[in-house]
Amino acid sequence: MFNRPLTGIALLAALFFSSASHSAESLQELYKQISGDIQKEATHNTEREKKFKAAADQQKAMLADVKAKLAAQEKLRTQLKATFDANEAELAEISTLLDQRTGNLGELFGVFRQMAGDTQSLMVGSLITAQYPERLDTIEALANSKEVPTIPQMQSLWELMLQEVSASGEVTKFTSSVVRPSGEAYSADVTRVGTFNVVTGDKFLSYNSDSGKLVELSRQPSGAATSTAADLTSASSGSVDFMLDPSRGALLSLLVQAPSLMERVQQGREVGYAIIVVGLIGLVFALMRYLALSGTSARIRKQLKDMEHPSDNNPLGRMMIAFYENKHLNDLDVITKKLEEVIFKELTDMKKGLATIKVLAAIAPLMGLLGTVTGMIGTFQAITLFGTGDPKLMAGGISQALITTVLGLVAAIPLLLASNALNSRNQQLSKLIGEQASGMIAEKAAEIAARKKAA
């Protein structure tokens, strides 16, 4: 057997040599791998350097090309500047020559443009343009022209001015588009009276220069004016009466702003309405009493024609019936009292309602005075709050004051006249009945006196 320590050392030596041999092989492989990587990296770097050098050469070529183009543009700029300066000099020479050759035509150009501008301003708002809208394009081209006018252009301006003058004295009809106040458009036959008014049917129209269309007035004038418009529209020849506005719409616009009767009444407010109610009640009472007295008067006249046959449908007949019923009495005082009782009752019935009419005739102006005071109070309140800078703020109170005064007088005057007329009629009938009663009593007195004398 071998010695144990020697055996261990031998084993260790074998392991060491085995390990060293293996490490040497690994290092050799690692060296080979690193050498291969270094060679690849060198090859890659070499290729990159070639690419960089190629790119640099290309950039140098592009830079050279750009510099060449810049030089060409600089040369072209110099040539163009020289050409521009030469053109400027030539243009100045031509302008000077043009001014020399134009002479007085420059003044003509100024006058022409001024006349064209004035004519354009006139035609834009002219009613004649509603009939010939195409002339606006022509006059606009003439007014905006920046060249010396030609003979045809001057003739065109002259024709437009002549057309305006000749058409201003015509009354003509043509078909045009008309716009209602609601915005609805319709086609209608319109009648133009010179440059003053345009109507269709019984409606007055205005010309809107912005839209180039005829527009119905939002509010038409009074019935008298609209009736003349209707007569003019329906007329085919001859002459008709027409309310012409020589101010070309200014007076018409003021006329349509005037409040109507209903608007005047509305300005009176509550007091005005109360006055109207009082006036209507008084007129109703007056009409009823007039009809009643007229019927009574007719029946009395009929009774006067037949005094032998009294009727109970009238005061005179009822008085006669009362007389005949008490005619047998010999006491004249009793008969007189009987007749006075009947006459008093009849006269009271005939006077019924007359006092009410008189009271209403007195109340109406007092209510008008109340409205006047109320309106002035409102006016002074407006002055206190807003001052006197804006008269419109005071107009409402002043209108109420004036309208209620007018309404009070309008209601009182006819009521007062009706009251006086009815009182006069009643007095006539009362006088007639009284005369007949006096005559009957006188006959009865004569009869009693004759009977006593015979006895």
Strand portion: 5-15%
Number of strands: 5
Helix coverage percent? over 70%
Segments where pLDDT lies below 50 for 5+ residues? 1-8, 10-15
Radius of gyration, taken over Cα atoms and rounded to an integer in Å: 59 Å
- Going across the major beta sheet, what is the strand order? 1-2-3-4-5
Distance between the termini: 224 Å
- Overall residue-averaged pLDDT value: 78
Descriptive overview:
The chain is of the alpha+beta class and 455 residues long. Among the domains are: 169-258, no CATH class; 269-454. The protein has helices at residues 4-102, 105-124, 128-131, 135-143, 151-167, 223-234, 250-257, 261-267, 269-305, 315-325, 332-350, 354-386, 392-454; strands at residues 171-179, 185-193, 197-200, 203-208, 213-216. Strands 1-2-3-4-5 form a five-stranded mixed beta barrel. Helix 2 (105-124) runs antiparallel to helix 4, helix 2 runs parallel beside helix 5 (151-167) and helix 12 packs antiparallel against helix 13 (392-454). Residues 1-8 and 10-15 have low confidence and may be disordered.
